[in-house]
Each structure stands twice: as structure tokens, then as C-alpha cells.
Design a protein that fits this description.
Strand content of chain A: 25-35%
Bound molecules: flavin-adenine dinucleotide, iron/sulfur cluster
CATH architecture of chain A: 2-Layer Sandwich
Number of helices of chain A: 2
CATH class of chain A: Alpha Beta
CATH class of one domain in chain B: Mainly Alpha
Structural class of chain B: alpha+beta
Largest sheet of chain A: 3 strands, antiparallel
Distance between the termini of chain B: 40 Å
Distance between the termini of chain A: 24 Å
Order of helices and strands of chain A: EHEEHEEEE
Structural class of chain A: mainly beta
Radius of gyration of chain B: 24 Å
Shape of chain A: globular
Oligomer: heterodimer
Number of strands of chain A: 7
CATH superfamily of one domain in chain B: Fumarate reductase/succinate dehydrogenase flavoprotein-like, C-terminal domain
Shape of chain B: globular
Largest interface: A-B, 44 and 58 residues
Helix content of chain A: under 10%
Strand content of chain B: 15-25%
Chain lengths: ~100, ~600
């Protein structure tokens, strides 16, 4: 699994860089984030949750059966909203209330 | 390259679960002691290779505290459970000491902001006999924030520690380098807590291609703590008890939530429930799946077909909180109510929070190196430790380290009092160690080693750390019981594994790094190779099969209680791994001290 960063959206705040447990994300001379070692991504999604402008998506690698959906999260009214964009253009979102624990 | 020397009272290596909690505890213990005797603040330094906000096992979040004493249960029940699961090879003293703290550290976490699910009477909602349910997506930021609030704790993020400074079996500090500021660090410390977690990436992973890091254990925990201890002659225990997780195929997402959350049973391709056939210990669950596949009844699944819409909805959310790739998998294909979830075993990991591998410690978490304490996945003897166990060990190690440091300064005061008077305020000056404990020569040696890797090397097609890592993983996979051999190995195979690992190790000397991040990759490889050699030695030493899959010795397929109801320990002596068999702790034993 890996991530992709939309450099047109990125504002170069460096938050994704700060949280990556593998220090895999770097900021280039143009103040844009990029993942230097895509194969090294653990898929923990820390960077995605941190990005203030939602420039980062994650996807499942084709080698593990990924079909190209792109995922990110947004905070909406205190809820964490997970947004899945499917390759055919459909979008599904799932809201999680951080104050309510998992059922399982 | 800049060279920086730092000095601290307590050095904590690895700001993960155990490391952060050790800092919180040490700061508190110190404040309490200081109030009593008006002493100066203890300086505490955490050095973390990533950033403590999201580093280590807890990066993605967890959805349960797997070790908790639920109502009506006692710490003894937990000890008995862990002992049974590991078929006797546990340290009871260590297990008691953490079990008695599970609930206390949980209450503390809740106070720090962790959301724990409660029923209408305000009681924690349990999952099975030992688990409680949490919303743990932000558990690591909660710990990191608590650390940031402490005045006397400094955090050095993005600094990788690669060696200890040990003289006469006493630790004086450690060496590291900043992976983004091109700085070499020599850090002197009164005491050190090692909390670098376990080791992933020794064996070829399930998906060695693009998704090679889509693994269960953090690929960034590379066994640094084990390797540094091994090289400096620390005694280590039970590396042969490898951990193999039973996971959802491809996404390597956890299965416990399906098994315990919606009661999904393990079934083979014929639809038969096979889990009861092989037993339900952690290793037997993996083994059953392996055996069904070997006998042609695979693939194996967790039977989720038929769960209710409400259950499915909850599952999708639960996985988003801890392993979002599984939810994506379901949404891209079929959801769990419509298709069973295929399962597989992962490659083996070395992880003292799940099995019993790691530093041989006493009840205070002192290792066999004076001044060095171990906590969390890097410490051995106490399997089924999980989050709360790592916190408990962080607390125990911190208290021990603080009293060790305070003992040292008391000693210095006494020594100083016997010297001729040098001035009125001499008693306060001596709190600073008189001279550097890490000598210039030692610094120069380490700097020279690093420079050698950073210097340009004429040949462009030489080995790379990545290539050698793949060779190492392939060798471990084929000859030391990886996925390829269904986790089995023989003495002859282990001999081949060792030869290959030593061959790869010899080639690491000519590796080249373009920057400090690549330098870290070289050291990670070297750490893994060191750990591999110890794993091989331990696998060879336990001439029995006590835990299927975890240590499946095809030369000795049966359990041998007469000879191997013992700990298999090891220590590096004159460059050779010496195996030491030690007697098990007695039933109910609460304390244990090293005999040096
Ligand atoms: C994916 C996953 C899910 C889990 N889910 C649960 C669960 O639901 N419930 C539960 O109770 N337990 C769970 N566990 C187990 C539990 O999280 C761990 O046992 C525990 O967090 C280990 O704590 P630790 O401090 O030993 O390791 P970590 O928290 O991993 O800390 C190790 C730290 O050391 C740093 N480090 C490593 N090497 C170096 C170096 N050379 N220099 C400097 N720093 C270094 C790392 O970056 C990391 O921050 C899970 C584990 C994993 C991997
Ligand atoms: S998903 Fe995790 S490992 Fe991957 S780049 Fe983001 S923060 Fe790093
Ligand atoms: S967090 Fe988002 S905006 Fe900030 S640097 Fe990273 S990608 Fe760019």
C-alpha cells in the first residue's frame, strides 16, 4: 500500500513529514511534499490524517489486489469522515465519531 | 557532518509506547523525590528515529487494550493464560509485575484523553475475558502530548541510535545520527532505557513487491535495541519463539476483531470449522491454517457470510480505525456479509510484546548490562504484553532507572565528602560527573565508521542496502523457517542460513549511502543481520517443537519436556553466540534478580 500526494494542492506545511513513522516524506525546493520511498510506506495513514488541505490519498498496491480507489479523511463537525473515491467516479464516505468507541 | 555531544541523566532510546510512558513516569517519580529532598531536576532525553507523535506500533491506532484484568478476574488468571499460551516458557515474575499494573495504566490513559467504551452503568465494555474496547486511533498523539507537557523531558526526533557506549559491562550512553540534519550525536547518560520495539523485516514478507511494507509489525522497528545489546554481550532470551500473525490475506489486517467481534470461525475451503482440531493457542491458530493448506484443504477463511447489516457497518468502521486497507479491500470487492475473509500467516517477527523474545531482564527490568533497562517489545520473558504491558514495563523501568541514577549521585556525594574541601558549595557541584564518560577516541571511531559509508565509492553497480536486505530475507525465508517452508526448518537448513547471513554481513562493509537516511538503511540492515544470527542460533538450540509454526523444528517434531522446559538464552562471547539454558521460574514466583 502506498500514498500519493497532489502537489497542486499541497501548501508545503510539512505536517505529513513530521508524523511519518518511517520519515519517508520529504519537502522539495518548491515547498511541495513528495514521498521519496513509496515502496517503504507502511500504510499507517498518519500523513493523510494530518494534511490540512487533503492533498494526500492512499491506495492499495496492485500487487495486493488494489483496484485504484483513493482514500483520505476529513474532519467534519468533530467527526472523522473517511472518503473513498472509486475509479469509476463513485464516492463513498463513512463518518466515525471519535468520542464513541468501536463496537468491536 | 556536525558532531554534537549531549549529556543527560536518563536517556530513553525509542519514543514509542514504552518509551513515552517511561518519560512520563520518570518525570513524575523525580518530581516526587525532589519535593522530599530539594534536589535538582533530573534531565530526561528521549531519542526517537521518527517523531514521537506517530512513531512505532501505535502509528495507525489500535482498537482494543488486549491486556486488562476484567471484573471477576485476577492478575493470576492473566499470568496463567500467558503461561499456557506459551506452553510454560514465560517468566512469571515479569508477568505478575505487569498484570498487576494493567488497570492502573489504563485508568491513566483514560485520564490523558483515551476514549474507552463504557456500558450504561459506566463500566468498561469488555471483549472476551481480557480485552477492553477503545477508540484508539489517536492513542499515540495522546501519549506524545503528555510527554510534551513535561518540563524536564527533551525529545530529539529524527535521530537514529545505532550503538551503545559500554565499558566494563556498564552503559555510559549511546551514539546516533540525525537523519535530516547531518549530525552525529554522542550522548552521555547516567542510565539508559532501551525501548526500540521488536524486529520486522528479517524474513521475506507476504508481498515482497511494491507492497513489501504492507506488513503487520512496523517495518521501521528493525531490531536496533536487540542488535546493540547482542553486540555488547547482553544476555538475551527466547529468540526462537518467533511471532507469526494470522491475518487477512494481502491487507495483513488483524483477524481478532472478526473472530472476537462478530464470532467468525476459521473454516477451510470445504467450509469445515478447523480451529478446534488444532487447538486455540496463538501458535496453534496459525498452525491449523498452515496444516489445512498443506493438506490441500485451503484456502482458509474467517466465516463472516451472513453477518447482519449492522455488524457489517461496525466492522467497516472498526477497520478504518486500525487497518483501513481492509475496509478499502471490502469496498473495492465484496463486503464481509457477502464473502468470507481469506486468512494467511505472516512472515515471522521477533517481538517481545507478543512472544517472549528479547532482553533477559530482572523484575526491575534491569538488563545484564549495568545501567541499561529494557521495556516493551524489546524486553523478553513476558509474552502477551501488548499496549498496557508496554506501558507497565515503561513505568517499572523508569522507576528503576531513576533510583539507579539517584543512587549514583548519592555515591558521588559520599565520595566527594571524603575528599579535601574545595569550596563551600562543593556538594552541589559534584552532581555533575567530573569527566566525560564517552572518550574522544570512541567518538572518532564511530564518526570514521559513518564517514566510510558516506564517502563516494568508485563502483556504481556495487551492492545496495536494499539488495542485501532482499537477499537476507530470501535466505531466512528458505532456510530459517519462513513462509516458503511453512515455517519449518532443520539443522542442515539453519546451517545454510547462517552461512548466507554471514556472507551478506561481510558485504555490508562496502555499502554506500548518499545521505543520512540511506545511512540509516545501512545500519538497519546491519541490525537485522545481527538479530538473524541470534534467531538462527536459538532455533538450532531448542531441539524440540513446543510451539507449532513459531518454532517448527523438523528434526525434532515433538515436544521434549525433559530437556526443554527451560529458557534458551544466549550471550555473545568473543564473537561467538554462547547458548545458556536456564531453569524456569517457580510457580507463582514474584521476583527475580540476575546473578552476575
Ligand atoms: C499493527 C499493530 C496493532 C496492534 N494492536 C494492538 C491492540 O489493538 N491492542 C493492544 O493491546 N496491542 C496491540 N498491539 C501491540 C502493541 O501495540 C505493542 O506491543 C506495543 O505498542 C509495543 O510498544 P513498544 O514501546 O515496545 O514499541 P513501539 O511503540 O513500536 O516503540 C518503539 C519506538 O522506538 C523507535 N525506534 C526504533 N529503533 C530506533 C532507533 N534505532 N533509534 C531511535 N528510535 C528507534 C520507533 O520509531 C518507535 O517509536 C499492536 C501492534 C501492532 C504492530
Ligand atoms: S501512510 Fe504512514 S508510512 Fe506511509 S507515508 Fe504516510 S505516514 Fe508514512
Ligand atoms: S501535510 Fe499536506 S499540505 Fe502539508 S506538506 Fe504534507 S501534503 Fe503538503
Amino acid at each position: 500500500m502506498s500514498i500519493s500526494i497532489d502537489q497542486n494542492v499541497c501548501i508545503g506545511c510539512g505536517k505529513c513529514h513530521d508524523v511519518c513513522p518511517g520519515t519517508l516524506i520529504k519537502i522539495n525546493e518548491n515547498k511541495k511534499a513528495f514521498i521519496k520511498y513509496p515502496k517503504d510506506c507502511w500504510g499507517c495513514t498518519s500523513c493523510i490524517k494530518e494534511c490540512p488541505v487533503h492533498a494526500i490519498r492512499f491506495f492499495l498496491g496492485e500487487d495486493i489486489g488494489g483496484k485504484g480507489s483513493k482514500v483520505h479523511t476529513e474532519k467534519v463537525n468533530g467527526l472523522v469522515r473517511w472518503i473513498v473515491e472509486f475509479p469509476d467516479g463513485r464516492v463513498k464516505s463513512i463518518d466515525i465519531d471519535p468520542k464513541e468507541s468501536n463496537k468491536y | 557532518m556536525k558532531i554534537e555531544r549531549l549529556k543527560t541523566d536518563l536517556l530513553i532510546i525509542g519514543g514509542g509506547t514504552a518509551g513515552c510512558y517511561a518519560a512520563i513516569t520518570a518525570a513524575k517519580a523525580n518530581a516526587t523525590n525532589n519535593a522530599a529532598n530539594n534536589a535538582a531536576d533530573l534531565k530526561i532525553l528521549i531519542v526517537e528515529k521518527a517523531n514521537i507523535k506517530r512513531s512505532g506500533c501505535l502509528a495507525a491506532g489500535v482498537n482494543a487494550l488486549n491486556a486488562y484484568i476484567t471484573e471477576g478476574r485476577t492478575p493470576k488468571d492473566y499470568v496463567e493464560y500467558a503461561k499456557k499460551d506459551a506452553d510454560g516458557i514465560v517468566r512469571e515474575d515479569l508477568l505478575y509485575s505487569i498484570s498487576e499494573k494493567f488497570n492502573e495504566v489504563t485508568a491513566h490513559l483514560e485520564k490523558l484523553g483515551l476514549v474507552i467504551l463504557k456500558d450504561k452503568d459506566g463500566k468498561y465494555v469488555t471483549r472476551g475475558n481480557r480485552n477492553i474496547k477503545i477508540n484508539g486511533e489517536n492513542i499515540k498523539p495522546i501519549l506524545a502530548d503528555a510527554v510534551k507537557k513535561l518540563d524536564n523531558v527533551t525529545v530529539l526526533n529524527h535521530v537514529n541510535i545505532f550503538d551503545f557506549s559500554v565499558h566494563n559491562n556498564k552503559i555510559n550512553g549511546a551514539f546516533g545520527f540525525g537523519i535530516e540534519n547531518d549530525t552525529f550525536y554522542a550522548i552521555e547518560a547516567g542510565a539508559v532505557i532501551i525501548a526500540t520495539g521488536g524486529a520486522a523485516g528479517l524474513y521475506r514478507p507476504n508481498n515482497p513487491g511494491f507492497s513489501r511494507h504492507k506488513m503487520w509489525y512496523p517495518p521501521f522497528n528493525t531490531g536496533a535495541g536487540y542488535a546493540m545489546g547482542i553486540r555488547h554481550g547482553a544476555e538475551m532470551t527466547t529468540f526462537e519463539m518467533r511471532f507469526i500473525a494470522l491475518r487477512c490475506k494481502d491487507t495483513i489486517a488483524p483477524t481478532g476483531t472478526l473472530a472476537q467481534g462478530v464470532g467468525a470461525k476459521q473454516v477451510n475451503a470445504l467450509g469445515d470449522v478447523y480451529e478446534t482440531k488444532y487447538g486455540i493457542s496463538t501458535s496453534e491458530r496459525v498452525y491449523g491454517t498452515v496444516a489445512e493448506n498443506l493438506e490441500g484443504r485451503g484456502p482458509c477463511y474467517l466465516r463472516t457470510v451472513g453477518i447482519s447489516a449492522e455488524q457489517e457497518e461496525s466492522l467497516l468502521k472498526a477497520y478504518l480505525n486500525m487497518a483501513p486497507s481492509q475496509t478499502i479491500r471490502w469496498l473495492e470487492n465484496e463486503t464481509p456479509s457477502k464473502a468470507n475473509v481469506e486468512i494467511e500467516g505472516t512472515e515471522p517477527y521477533i517481538v517481545g510484546g507478543h512472544t517472549a523474545s528479547g532482553y533477559w531482564v530482572d523484575t526491575k527490568r534491569a538488563t545484564t548490562i549495568e545501567g541499561l533497562y529494557a521495556a516493551g517489545d524489546v524486553a523478553g520473558g513476558a509474552p502477551q504484553k501488548y499496549v498496557t504491558g508496554a506501558l507497565a514495563e515503561g513505568e517499572i523501568a523508569a522507576k528503576s532507572a531513576v533510583s539507579y541514577i539517584e543512587g549514583l549521585s548519592a555515591l558521588r556525594l559520599i565520595r566527594q565528602a571524603h575528599q579535601p574541601a574545595q569550596g563551600p558549595d562543593v556538594q552541589f557541584k559534584v552532581a555533575e560527573p567530573a569527566e566525560a564518560t564517552i572518550k574522544e577516541g570512541e567518538v572518532a571511531e564511530h564518526v570514521a565508521e559513518i564517514k566510510k559509508f558516506l564517502d563516494p565509492r568508485g563502483d556504481e553497480d556495487g551492492d545496495t542496502a536494499e539488495r542485501l536486505e532482499e537477499e537476507m530475507q530470501a535466505a531466512m525465508d528458505a532456510y530459517a523457517g519462513g513462509i516458503q517452508t511453512s515455517y519449518r526448518y532443520s539443522e542442515n537448513q539453519l546451517a545454510v542460513a547462517l552461512e548466507k547471513i554471514e556472507g551478506i554481513e561481510a558485504r555490508t562493509n562496502s555499502l554506500h549511502a548518499d545521505d543520512f537516511q540511506e545511512l540509516m538503511y545501512i545500519y538497519e540492515l546491519k541490525e537485522r543481520l545481527t538479530v538473524c544470527k541470534s534467531v538462527i542460533a536459538h532455533l538450532a538450540a531448542r531441539k524440540e517443537t513446543r510451539w507449532h509454526s513459531f518454532a517448527e523444528n523438523s528434526d525434532y517434531p515433538e515436544k521434549d519436556n525433559e530437556h526443554f522446559r527451560k529458557y534458551v538464552n544466549s550471550r555473545l562471547e568473543n564473537g561467538k553466540i554462547k547458548i545458556i539454558l536456564r531453569e524456569l521460574t517457580a510457580e507463582g514466583q514474584r521476583t527475580y534478580e540476575h546473578q552476575h
